[in-house]
């Protein structure tokens, strides 16, 4: 059972095939579920994820720059503010409990896997239009939603319950559904209703799969540094 | 008496000289103050200003893309959301009373003076760094604050009291002071504390004056179409 | 008889209708043809056109940034170098004969009509993809080719023969045909073969017409300053 | 003995310290020198380097977009054309001898180390100004020049003599000296003459070192895939 985050996501997810499964069922994810993930791996991930979120905020801001309608602008702008002025602060709070303040986070050397992922997304936006950008943002937004839901259902006794609950929450599931609706509308506007028949489909799908591949590298960075 | 919106603004304003006075004391502005501005001129302005605000929202979003610190990101992101999900809606409300819905606004042909101003700002951001962008955003943000304050004090019996009060309000004056602080910090970070001695000063000052010149054209567009 | 610069251009030109005619038969153009254009109007145009060409070079460079294939990159890169390291120098040569050196040109205050046009094109590239950018570049490239051809055939005794011959030349006509081929390929790749049926057609066509409108303002600037 | 590619490069190189040595004396480089580099490692590098050069061409094109003077534009535009319409074709020629045509090259899946490096550079340009971009481009341009010179002097009997000679050639050394002059002028213009005392120095130096670090990962990708 996969959650319904819209038509485009379902098609892009299918096209990504095994790569999607490798991302959403990565050893790191299974370790969150059954509690076997070493604490240091989680912390390594968390610190890099702070930097990731800053660039993710920049990428959604680039979405505002590239919007063509008031609806697109409003949706992207709300996400920018949500990410930077709320989610990032939540993150800072979790890290503070581990003894890391925001300056530590901000000054952490960025891992190459973090650079590769975030800058690939930024450049997709610089190179193409809003469709190119949104298909790169989808694997993170919706992948975490899908992982959160599955883990909430199947998780054992795990110290990572808070992480799981965040992404399984109705709030976050709404974020995924709204992002899916924005993606559907943006693609309909730019490539038409018959998504897979559009000339840009293979390139957009390739971008989605590349971003998914970079998510796998991000989990791996958490595991092995 | 000019309001205190920070060091950089005061220096840029001085450097703009007569151009700044021509902007803040434009016939359009004096017409708002004494109530002689024709209603149709105000409406012409209002409709174009809706489109202006959309691009202004895009420009602040570009500020998020170009931020180097969490503080810069947070300030720009808050402004993006404020502009797009609040101020723009206020605008829609005022226009609705005049019988114009948001689709009408969005589909109004953009005046060349609007194109010149908004796209100049966007390209300043694309071409330079956050300092280049912020000095282009300052004349609008702070100029309206300064105009609002002066008009609130000196306005006669005018149907444009609501417009004046918006920009004279403590809320809007805070926006100006915060934008001034962001500008001061962004310039200190990029060109140092001795602003007028920095190699980039003449170019940054030229950008500020150019944007001010484009504000004059914007008022003129309201007056004469 | 209109020259054949490819399918997309023909369709965009048709869609622009009277606006296209107003541009290609502007009083300024007719003055070049019959020699009635005042010298000072021509010089005013020439000086602003130097600044225009610099930004046009930037815009084709943005085309390289936004290319998706080696063919797109090669075509845009060749145009960038041609514009900046050749055409711009030709321009400098013509102006030198009039007693203006390159520093004078570079430091001329930019006219609002110049700002509006060039920055609109740059922002179209920042906002959209290569298709959005190329349809904004087409009116200038191909319009000058069409004007050049017509004037070469119909020009009377005019001091502007050199200008006319430049754009009527086989060299420049090849530039137009190649730009047309790049545009055709870029659109086929992004919106498919049935151009006018594609969801993006109306927006792309609107961009072409807007750029054409800004060409009219540019001639007008030459005439009336 | 290090070659003289200008003031800024010398200071940035010093600041990068051991990271610079790790890049220019990487095992891959020593394998080119003494001929012990496995052919398959060289080919793996060559194929990824084709993709790298395409993005490097895009990055120099972004330099045109971000230029503030005719000199900056001309230098960047010449480099764009040189890279895309000449150097890239040289590369295609070498690969053709190995049985790889340009379509094969273009369609090779991009390695994460390639993504990380090229997109980091593109985003530095999107985020900052020309100075931010040029310091990211310097390690590749000048590093290859320095490596070429040293290897030409010290190389034994190696099948990679052609590669070495390309970068040791007077032609390529001129490219390095010109890039160094562009960098010096761009920095003087933006941060002043006392480079290391400028507020932006630590950030620019950090960018240079980060790009150098990504060069190391690029060699490593050649060695180990």
From TrEMBL, chains A, B, C, D:
Report the Gene3D superfamilies cross-referenced here: Heme oxygenase-like
Tell me the SUPFAM superfamilies matching this sequence: Heme oxygenase-like
UniProt GO cellular component terms: cytosol
Which Pfam families does the entry mention? Answer: TENA_THI-4
| Name of the protein in question | TenA family protein
* Positions of the Thiaminase-2/PQQC domain: 17-223
């Amino acid at each position: 059972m996969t959650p319904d985050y819209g038509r485009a996501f379902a098609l892009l997810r299918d096209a990504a095939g095994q790569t999607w499964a490798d991302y959403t069922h990565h050893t790191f994810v299974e370790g969150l579920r059954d509690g076997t993930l070493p604490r240091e791996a989680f912390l390594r991930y968390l610190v890099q994820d702070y930097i990731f979120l800053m660039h993710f905020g920049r990428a959604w801001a680039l979405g505002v720059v590239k919007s063509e309608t008031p609806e697109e602008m409003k949706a992207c702008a709300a996400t920018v503010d949500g990410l930077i002025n709320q989610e990032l602060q939540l993150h800072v709070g979790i890290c503070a409990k581990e003894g890391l303040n925001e300056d530590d986070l901000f000054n952490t050397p960025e891992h190459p896997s973090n650079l590769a992922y975030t800058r690939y997304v930024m450049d997709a936006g610089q190179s193409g239009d809003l469709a190119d950008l949104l298909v790169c943002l989808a694997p993170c937004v919706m992948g975490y939603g899908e992982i959160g839901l599955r883990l909430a259902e199947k998780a054992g006794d795990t110290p990572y319950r808070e992480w799981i609950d965040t992404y399984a929450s109705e709030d976050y599931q709404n974020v995924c559904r709204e992002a899916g609706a924005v993606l559907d509308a943006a693609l309909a506007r730019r490539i038409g209703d018959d998504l897979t028949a559009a000339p840009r489909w293979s390139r957009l799908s390739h971008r989605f799969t590349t971003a998914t591949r970079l998510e796998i590298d991000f989990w791996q960075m958490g595991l092995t540094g």
